[in-house]
Every structure is written in structure tokens, then in C-alpha cells.
């Protein structure tokens, strides 16, 4: 039957504090809320104790941020989508951010093992005056372990309601997509970072400029690009051979955006360095 798990996170502002409440069913939980930046920003680490996702598993996460709250949600390590015997695995994330709230959705990478059948979706609903940063990093196979992505299928969807929708399907048999110059050109890591708002971004050009400055000095500059597909969204896309350099670039751009948009320092969750 597979694991069916749900996690609901609710954040609200109380004076100078962002308070959090969580409800869970099944093996999807959060660690104790942390405030390494002070009481205004709540850091949460989402855990999936089984350690991987297989065919038939369904993981559903919902986060709601009310006015004035600020949450940073991450994971302790990669999400592993293992080989399936025929059933699809699903990971669904729904994010609701109210006016004046800020969210940072920053999970570690997803690893698509050869033979997996999986779908990952992130749906964002931002009210006018709400802002968020998020990223999505996918690694195909385990090249360092000589386990390439030669079987299976991984589909993705990232949606900002009413403004931005990206959908993709990666099949291990699609040689044109995986290996040609008009596709991924043999790059097994796909990374996307975005800054989104519930209205047109007043700092749109600044966000584009600072991201392009960071990208221009990076070793992955030839495989990265920053665009604004819609006035309320700025997007960085990166292709790489390995996760680490792609993630490092996303971390640097995220830090630059945090400074110019929110006047907040580059505070990285401690668990990223453990």
C-alpha cells in the first residue's frame, strides 16, 4: 500500500514572534521549531523517518503563513525516490502565504534513482503583499556510484497560482531530452530558484541584476540563466553535473536576494553544514 503521510504547518505572528503549530499523520514530521535569527523567523526541518520514497508512497505537506509571519522550511538531507515495481510515488507541497508574510521553502535535493516512477509538485498561493523564495533541485541517478538514470520516469510541476506554471516529464528513455544540445546535454542536475510575490515585484530589476552578478562570477555561468517570466516572479535555472556546485550557486543567490529584498543577513540553517 505504501506510506501515506500528511503534515500541516501553520504560522502566525504574535508580537515579535512567529509561532508555529504542526499536525501530522503518518511518517512526516518536523523537528522542534528553532529561532537562530531571533524570534521573528521560525526555522523548521521536515523529516521523513523512512528515509526514502517508493512506489505507492504519498507525502502531502501544507504550510500556511498568516499576516506578518516568516518561516524557513528545509530538510536534513536529500529526498530519495527509489526504484518502483510499478506504482507511482507522489510528493505534494501546497504553500499559502498571506499578506505581509514571508516564506523560504528550501528543501535539499531530490534524488531520482534509476527505475523510479515519481511525481513532485509544488503549488504556491500568495496573497497581495506576500513574498517567498523557494528552490527545487533534482538529480538524476547516482553518477558518483556509477548508477546512471537509465530506467524510470520523473515528472514535476511548480505553480504560482494565476501567474507561473512549469511542468516537465523526464523519461530515462528520452535520449533527445537527456543528452542532446537542445535538451539537458548530459547534465544530470536540474536546479531552479525563484523569488515570487502576490503582486508585481517592485524590485524586479534589482533582483535580476544581483542574481546575474552572482551567476556571472560562478563556474556554472555557462549553464545558468536568470529570467522573469512574469512581473511577480524572478527565476534562476541551473544545469550541472553534480549537486554540490548547483546548490552552492543557489545558496549564494538566495543570500543576495535576502539582503536586497528583505534586508536580512545570509543566515543558513545549521543543518546544511552537518
Query: What can be said about the biggest beta sheet?
Result: 10 strands, mixed
Strand content: 35-45%
Shape: globular
Q: Which structural class do the helices and strands define?
A: mainly beta
Fraction in helix: 10-25%
Order of helices and strands: EEEEEEEEEEEEEEHEHEEH
Rg over CA atoms: 18 Å
Mean pLDDT over all positions: 96
Number of helices: 3
How many β-strand stretches?
17
What does this structure look like?
- This protein is mainly beta and 274 residues long.
- It has three helices and 17 strands.
- Strands 3, 4, 6, 7, 9, 10, 12, 15, 16 and 17 form a ten-stranded mixed β-sheet that branches.
- The two termini are 34 Å apart.
- 14% of the residues lie in helices and 45% in strands.
In short:
The chain has 274 residues and is mostly beta strands.
